[in-house]
Amino acid sequence: MKIAITGKGGVGKTTLSATLSHLFAAAGKRVIAVDADPDANLAQALGVKPEDIEKIRPIAEMGELIEERTGAKPGNMGGIFKLNPRVDDLPEGFGYKLKDITLLIMGKSKSAGSGCYCPESIFLRRLLKHLFVERDEVVIVDMEAGIEHLTRGTAEAVDAFIVVVEPGQRSIQTANTVKDLAKGLGVKNVFIVANKVRSGSDVSFLTEHIKGMELLGTMHFSQSVMDADISGSAPFEKAPEVVDEVRKIKQMIEEHLDGR
Hints:
Layout: E1 2-7, H1 13-26, E2 31-35, H2 42-46, H3 50-53, H4 63-70, H5 90-94, E3 96-98, E4 101-105, H6 118-133, E5 138-142, H7 152-155, E6 160-165, H8 169-185, E7 190-197, H9 200-209, E8 214-220, H10 223-231, H11 235-238, H12 240-257
Parallel strand pairs: 1-5, 1-6, 2-4, 2-5, 6-7, 7-8
Antiparallel strand pairs: 3-4
Helix pairs in contact: 1-12, 4-6
């Protein structure tokens, strides 16, 4: 099963990604959790210790590896490099292991004046396509807001595209943009998860304004999730009420994809 999770910044997509990863792993599945957001914080949401987070090297920063596989030195402009570099060994060799979850951090935003991002971009796109198309684990990708960086071949291999929204016009605008992009790439299953819900009127507001996407479930506003963030803990360990809501969302995902 391959799941891509996106949404406007701060809506809770990382909380959903991390909790789904733990739930699938608890069900006996091998899980690859991918942090594809430049503002990488999936490791903390999974419950990786702060001292271990510092040791995890984003793949985009592995300059020697990227140069070896693509034939181009990161930061260089122009030149010829491989468009289909080898990436099949990366989950095993470079992922952080957390019980039955393997965490991959794709990379952070380039700093100003740091040069061309072409070799890294090609490498990361190839890795993402490998994870979606060629792996047999449950793959959960915590993505940045847009999906422009997905190729058609990658997007078509996604079993479920989940947009996390919160009550508000800006979140809805992002969700509709993602829906249009997904449609253009041929993604069949685009779902909504509502987060930070406070009342039934919040759900009514979202269902009224979100068109063409099914609501999988809701996650209520949770002080426990905020406390987990402050303490650097996983919501899976500190917010049982949210875990119960995400478990229902997981069941809905499985029901929708059972006959795919």
